[in-house]
Here is the input.
Amino acid sequence: MKRARGDRVFWLLAFFSSLSVIVMFTLLFYELLSNSVPIWKDGMSFITGMVWDPLKGLFGAFPFIYGTLLTATFAILLSTFLGVGIAIFLSEIAPSSLRVIISSIIELIAAIPSVIIGLWGIFVLAPFVRDNLQPLLQHLSFIPLFSGKTLSGLSMLTAILVLTFMVTPIVAAIAREALLMVPEDLKEALYSLGATRYEVVRHVCIPYARQGIFGGVILGYGRALGETMAVTMVIGNTPSISASILNPGYTMAAVIANEFTEATGDVYLSALIGIALLLLLISLAVNLVGRMIVWKWQQEG
Here is the structure.
C-alpha cells in the first residue's frame, strides 16, 4: 500500500515537472508575441527590412537574421570538423593518460564564461585576424566571401572563430560519449577481417554513433545561434549585409543586448522583442529539424 502511494506521488511529481517545462515555454512564447504586436502591424516588412535606424523609425531585422545565421553556420561547420576529430582521437587513438588530460581541458574550456572569451577575442583574436589572417585572405579577395577588410579586426570572421572556440568543446564532448558507446565486438570483428583503424572508424564507429554526434552538433548550433556577450564584443555591431566575412556584422542576440536598455517608445521596444521572438523560432526550428532527422535515422535503423 505504501509502495503504491509512493509510486503515485512520484508519478505526479514527474508529470508536473515535465508539464512545467511546457507551461514555461508557452508563457515565454505568449509574452514575446504579445509584447511584439506593434512591430507586426507592418507585416513581413519587419523581417525582410534591410535598414535599422531607430531615430528614423525604421526597423528592419534582416541584417541581424543574416548575421546570426552566417556566423553560427560557419562556426558549426568548423566545430563539427574539429569536434568530431577530437572525439575520434580521444575515443580511438589517445592513450588513457592523455585522454583524461585532454578531456579535462575540453570540459574546462566549455565552462569559461562567455564574457572572458569575448575579452580574449578583443585583445588577442581580433589583432591576429587583422594582422595575419586578413592579409593572407586578401589573396582570395576575388571571392566575395573574402573581399572585405576591417581596420580593427572586429568582423564576422572574428565572431565565427570565437563561436568555434566556444562550440567545439560541446560537440567534442557529446561526440566522444557517443563514440565510446560503440560495442567493442563490432570493432573487433572488422579488425579481424584486416580492416585498418580508419576503416573501423569510418564504417563502424561513425555510423553507429551518428545520432549522438548529430545531437551534439544541433546542441552546439543552438548555442552558437543564441550566444550574446562574446559575439557582441567582437563582431563589430554594424547592421549591414555583406557577402564578406571580413566585414563587421550584427546578430539578433547582440542587438538585443546592446539596445534593449536604450529603447524608447513602444515600437522600438516591440522591435527588439520581435527579434527575440524570431530568435526563439529559429532555434526551435533548428531543434525540430534535428529531431526529425534523428527520428528518420531511427526508423531506417
Summary: The domain at 45-300 is CATH 1.10.3720.10 (MetI-like fold). The mean pLDDT is 89. The chain has two domains: 1-35, 45-300.
